[in-house]
Design goal:
Elements: H1 17-32, H2 41-51, E1 58-63, E2 67-73, E3 76-86, H3 113-129, E4 134-142, H4 150-156, E5 167-175, E6 182-184, E7 187-190, E8 192-201, E9 205-206, H5 217-229, E10 241-250, E11 257-258, E12 261-270, H6 273-293, E13 297-306, E14 309-311, H7 313-325, E15 330-332, H8 344-347, E16 352-360, H9 376-393
Parallel strand pairs: 3-4, 3-5, 5-16, 6-15
Antiparallel strand pairs: 1-2, 2-4, 6-16, 7-14, 8-12, 8-13, 9-11, 10-12
Helix pairs in contact: 1-3, 3-9, 5-6, 7-9
């Protein structure tokens, strides 16, 4: 009969006070030197320098552009458990006056990716001290989450095929929830979204003779109204869908000229990928109808594309059991978040779960200029992931 793996004592999976102080220092160092999506070379270098104290069995650098992975092998074969942390910052000026505030103008870690990346370093430190009993742990530091490209970059890297996980986990800190509370949900956790850009081109004319040109003015008015109402014009959506017009521009500021070009931009959002496909087709059809009605040329672009983050039940149960073992408060979401996360690219291919870790009910919200990741979550995040590994791989 197969003997069960002997689990190490819980104390072996807890970060020491010295490690926690080192993690706090690292997190604040990352916060001072933020980098935008696809430009995270310095961030990666700082993280890998820290990781050199806790060397993995293998390090894959420049994974998916500016990401990297650390692999820790167990003593016998078994499943692969992956944990992903994001590393990019936002193009926003920080308003905080703390000593570790951003030193880069108009770039700041106002979403907490500095904290997420540091939590993985804490997990690496514990794995270096005690490898899993079986299988392997793959720690992924992923770039470019904010623009929806990073997960696809990693997955497209040929080297990722050798990392293919049996299960993958990720987390995001959540202001508005009690500090340290584990937030989970079966199925959709965060919405799919994509940015739509409709470029309309006609012909300019003198404002005294607008009939001699082709103005996109009526098409812009039509699109703003119809795109906004698009979720209500069909009954075959399975769940929440939303279209938000975020920008429109018509010609130039010139009172003597009837405009000949325009741009309309909108964000499409849904809890399900199949609903996003329906919404996408109908938004394209609206653009085509508007252009054809006034003899305009139409160019369509898409940006910031995120799949829905959909959790797998078995992986969520692993999270819940780890939270119970850590004696953490838990909260089950009744509806998904409307914001998007590119972690959904992983759960399209592999079993996995994305969870939230409460950042405090009164904490500044994500992307606000005065936001800063709460250092108290470093220990909680490390302990939760370490417990997940302990329960899954021994």
């Amino acid at each position: 009969m197969t003997q069960p793996f002997s689990l190490p004592p819980m104390s072996a999976m807890l970060p020491s006070p010295e490690l926690l102080q080192a993690l706090k220092t690292l997190r604040r160092d990352l916060h001072q030197y933020p980098e935008l999506a696809g430009q995270e070379q310095g961030t990666g270098a700082r993280l890998q320098q820290f990781l050199s104290r806790y060397p993995p069995d293998r390090l894959l650098a420049d994974l998916g552009n500016t990401g990297f992975a650390a692999i820790y092998h167990g003593t016998v074969p078994g499943p692969t458990l992956a944990i992903r942390g994001d590393i990019d910052a936002l193009p926003i000026m920080e308003a905080a006056t703390c000593p570790h505030r951003s030193r880069h103008a108009n770039v700041a870690h106002l979403c907490g990716h500095d904290g997420h990346a540091t939590i993985l370093c804490g997990v690496a430190a514990l794995l270096a001290r005690r490898r899993p009993a079986r299988g392997r742990v793959v720690l992924l530091w992923q770039p470019a989450e904010e623009i929806g490209c990073g997960a696809r970059w990693l997955l497209a890297d040929p080297r990722f095929t050798e990392l293919a996980p049996d299960v993958i986990f990720g987390l995001h800190n959540l202001p508005g929830f009690p500090l340290g509370q584990v937030v989970w949900r079966h199925g959709s956790f965060a919405a799919a979204s994509k940015g739509l850009i409709l470029r309309l081109t006609g012909a300019t004319a003198h404002a005294a003779q607008p009939e001699s040109g082709r103005s996109p003015a009526l098409a812009v008015a039509y699109l703003i109204a119809q795109l906004t109402q698009l979720p209500q014009t069909a009954s075959d959506y399975c769940d929440f869908v939303q279209v938000t017009v975020v920008h429109a521009r018509l010609g130039e500021v010139a009172f003597g000229t009837a405009p000949g070009e325009a741009v309309v931009m909108a964000t499409l959002r849904s809890y399900r990928d199949d609903d996003m496909a329906r919404l996408t087709d109908r938004a394209i059809a609206l653009g085509q109808t508007a252009a054809q009605a006034d003899g305009l040329q139409l160019a369509i672009e898409w940006t910031d594309e995120f799949a829905a983050t959909v959790n797998h039940r078995a992986a969520v149960e692993q999270v819940r059991q780890a939270a119970i073992a850590c004696h953490y408060d838990q909260h089950e979401l009744t509806t998904p978040f409307r914001w998007s996360e590119d972690f959904g690219e992983y759960t399209r291919r592999y079993s996995g779960a994305f969870l939230g870790l409460g950042a405090g009910e009164q904490h500044p919200h994500l992307h606000q200029a005065d936001y800063d990741f709460p250092d108290e979550l470093l220990e909680r995040g490390v302990k939760l992931f370490a417990t997940l590994i302990r329960h899954s791989l021994g």
